[in-house]
Amino acid sequence: MSVQRNQYIIIGCEYDYDEFNENYNDDEKYVELYDDNAFDKKIVEHNGLSMIYDGMNGEYVYIGRIIEKTEDYEIIERFCFDDHADEEEKDLINAIIKTEFPKLPDKPINVYLVTHYR
Questions:
Q1: Cβ(24)–Cβ(103) under 8 Å?
Q2: Distance CA 63, CA 106 (A)
């Protein structure tokens, strides 16, 4: 595990790392375009989507809209799911994921609090 740590709140889908790479491993542009940079406070976004890609441990890939992101070692002190549970936004994010990542299986759109190590 790395010493760099950020927390994210993201509305989107969680994919198994291997499941994602089975479909998009040959095309690294997806990771380059969407993967958020933990070292920059600005959120990386392309066509309305961002990605949290666990390239170090190979455990997960989250794709969706990042609502909040901490800087290194900061924490999200309070989180209320209901503040981020808009069904219209979930439908929109789902439609964009289907357009941008057509090879991935359909997954439910959820709100996740992710602690991401780099």
A1: yes
A2: 12
Count of CA atoms in the C-beta half-sphere (13 A) of 11: 21
- Tens digits of per-residue pLDDT, 11-63? 999 999 888 988 887 567 778 889 988 888 899 999 999 999 887 777 899 99
With 0.85 as the threshold, say if the pTM is over it: no
CA distance 46 to 97: 11
Query: How crowded is residue 8: how many other Cβ atoms within 10 Å of its Cβ?
Result: 22
| Half-sphere exposure at residue 92, Cβ-oriented, CA atoms within 13 angstroms | 10
Residue 52 bridge partners (DSSP): 62
Cα 116 to Cα 5: distance, rounded to the nearest angstrom: 6
